[in-house]
Amino acid sequence: MTTSDAFISIREVSKYFGTFKAIDTVSLDIAGGEFFSLLGASGSGKTTLLRMLAGFEPTTQGEIHIDGMPMSPVPPHQRPVNMVFQSYAIFPHLNVRDNIAYGLRKAKLPREQRYAMVDRMLELIKLPGYGLRRANELSGGQRQRVALARALILRPKVLLLDEPLGALDKQLREQMQLELRALQRKVGITFVFVTHDQEEALTLSDRIAVMEGGRILQVDTPGGLYEAPRSRAVASFIGSMNFFAGQVRRNGAHDAAIETEGLGTITVPGDSLRHADGAAVQVALRPEKFTVSPTRPDGRQAVEGQLLNAAYLGERSHFYITIPGRNDPVAVSAQNRSRGSGLGPAVEAGGTVWLSWQDDACVVLDPE
Amino acid sequence: MTDIPHLQRPNRALQFYAALFLIVLYVPILLIPLFAFNDSIYVRFPLQGFTTRWFVELWDRQPVWDAFGNSLRVGVAVSIISTILGVITARAITRYRMPGKTVLVGFVMTPLIVPSIIFGVALLVVISRIDLIRPTLYTVALGHVIVCLPFAVATLIPRFEGFDASIEEASADLGENGWWTFWRVTFPGVMPGIVASMLLTFVISFDEFVMAFFLSGNEVTLPILIWSQLRFSQQFPSILALATLILFFSIPLILLAMWINRLGLAPGQIEGDGA
Ligand SMILES: Nc1ncnc2c1ncn2[C@@H]1O[C@H](COP(=O)(O)OP(=O)(O)OP(=O)(O)O)[C@@H](O)[C@H]1O
Ligand SMILES: [Mg+2]
């Protein structure tokens, strides 16, 4: 094994449901104490992978190691992981205290000690005094916290969370995101967090694995995924992206030129280019990497275009700009630093604008 | 103008039908307690006056007590056995994806549609072929378990279906094996169904006649005793008294069983999802 600090190591794991391949040769290493997210569209296999970590689904091929131990012979109730279910799965016949203390039976602690531990957990999840409430007297957010406390009280080495915030409204969700992140730092447990919300994944995670159709497309830090996606699928799944078809013209030691449809021949830093001379590529540029101005900017690469329409969103404005040589308009997002949209009243729909960008903002990808 | 929604307006024809149905069903039953308190050995109108002497007479008859004891023992045993088997069957049917599941369900449910006289005769044939077994209360209990199992399973299946599977997974995840998970989570969750099933199967066994007729040998149950006493007209009023007691004891038990079962299934009771 190359990464010695890998706490969870997933080695070429596949999962079939009948003949359907839900997980396709996934390999992953997750470090101890890491906040690791699985991000993907619905049906991409996130829950299935998490359930394999918890032991509810056997792996068809491959092996999962946790803390150096192969997991396939270990049943769910003996794994050093705990799970927070999407439905929370609070025991309906028990009150909050007995829910949280559920896993302590085997520890054979005296009752006062058990209750003291529960009270400390209730402090941690900010629900002090809720011990005697019944499960059906709790709100969605409170249930979510009880589910969290029930797992954390056992001091698992890994906590698995399956879209734990999915059922909450936006405001509570954002608050819980902050609390979850703070909690993870405090207890230092490895979190494996499933979500289909890219913003949530970017906010919370140390690293993110982007999944599609049972495969992992890319594993990277939030910044890495956003700024340096390695495929069109990842680039368009996280944030929005403009793509320009192109061809490598010169692949020198320091910089390279790419002839693109729409942006002309652009120069990009040579170290970001893995492609040979003459190779077909795609250049990807995020909407906020462009600068729009009513006149030609000095000293930068720029193209002339026509403003198709503009949307004022308060904090920022979105522009759609058609440029010669490209069918789809280019999406541009600009912060509204002065009052009104950045372009001012000078430019109306149909008017001429200039688009410019920084060389190092371009991401060069394989063609589709 | 009325503000009752169209679908909730009373339907006269339906109300009439329901009333007629209830009359046909219950008036004959109501005649039983009526004549049990009638001060005459003959069952006919006009009524002769109020008496409790048939009940007193019943109290003094040892064969009635014996039969009552037999029925009670069989009923308790049957309710426990068929409910345990019902829990296992209902759990298997609702939890596992197994081949031939519909066949199994059909097999368990057949006693509901096959007349019990056929089961009774069949069991009697089997028993008389095996020298070691004689018709006794044990064979009655066996027959009753067959009759009661579909009721137990039908009562328990909705409980298991309404039970969120992730609750059991959560228990396993928190370190409990299958056995402890059953005791700490599944069993309390399906408890109302278990109680309802025990009450229901007890009453069915207690009142069952056909199986007991074939399989009881010379230890009679209460329904068999009633049947055998019908020949003696001077016994008839006390038999009515006995039937009255059974009625007043069975009906509340069935209602209790239905109420307990409803209790647990009320929305919001068994849920894991946010309400
Ligand atoms: N028990 C099962 N039997 C058959 N197919 C299954 C089973 N569980 C999941 N699948 C299939 O495996 C694929 C991945 O499912 P999974 O639940 O892991 O997706 P997901 O990424 O968690 O999606 P979501 O965001 O909607 O929860 C889906 O196509 C699903 O239909
Ligand atoms: Mg899922």
How would you describe this protein?
The complex is a heterodimer of chains A (368) and B (275). By secondary structure, chain A is α+β, with helices and mostly antiparallel strands. Chain A folds into 2 domains: 3-236, P-loop containing nucleotide triphosphate hydrolases (Rossmann fold, 3-Layer(aba) Sandwich); 242-365, OB fold (Dihydrolipoamide Acetyltransferase, E2P), CATH 2.40.50. Chain A contains 8 helices and 20 strands. Chain A has a 6-stranded mixed beta sheet, with helices on both faces. A 5-stranded antiparallel beta sheet of chain A has the order 13-12-11-14-20, with no helix packed on it. The mean pLDDT of chain A is 87. Chain B has one domain (55-274): Orthogonal Bundle (MetI-like fold). Chain B has helices at 12-36, 53-59, 62-95, 101-109, 116-129, 137-161, 165-173, 178-207, 210-215, 222-229, 236-265. The chains are: A alpha+beta (368), B mainly alpha (275). At the A-B interface, β6 and α4 of A face α7 and α8 of B.
Gross geometry of chain A: elongated
From the 3D structure, determine the CATH topology of chain B: MetI-like fold
Mean pLDDT of chain A: 87
Roughly what fraction of the amino acids of chain A lie in strands? Answer: 35-45%
H/E element string of chain B?
Answer: HHHHHHHHHHH
The profile of the biggest β sheet of chain B is:
none
Largest interface: A-B, 28 and 25 residues
What kind of assembly state do the chains in view correspond to? heterodimer
Topology, element by element:
The complex is a heterodimer of chains A (368) and B (275).
Chain A: E1 6-17, E2 20-31, E3 35-40, H1 46-54, E4 61-66, E5 69-70, E6 81-84, H2 96-100, H3 111-124, H4 140-152, E7 158-162, H5 170-187, E8 190-195, H6 198-204, E9 207-212, E10 215-220, H7 222-227, H8 232-237, E11 242-251, E12 255-260, E13 264-269, E14 280-285, E15 290-293, E16 302-312, E17 316-322, E18 330-335, E19 352-357, E20 363-365
Helix pairs in contact in A: 3-4
Chain B: H1 12-36, H2 53-59, H3 62-95, H4 101-109, H5 116-129, H6 137-161, H7 165-173, H8 178-207, H9 210-215, H10 222-229, H11 236-265
Bound molecules: adenosine-5'-triphosphate (ATP) and magnesium ion (MG).
Adenosine-5'-triphosphate (ATP) binds at residues 17, 20, 22, 40, 42-48, 196 of chain A.
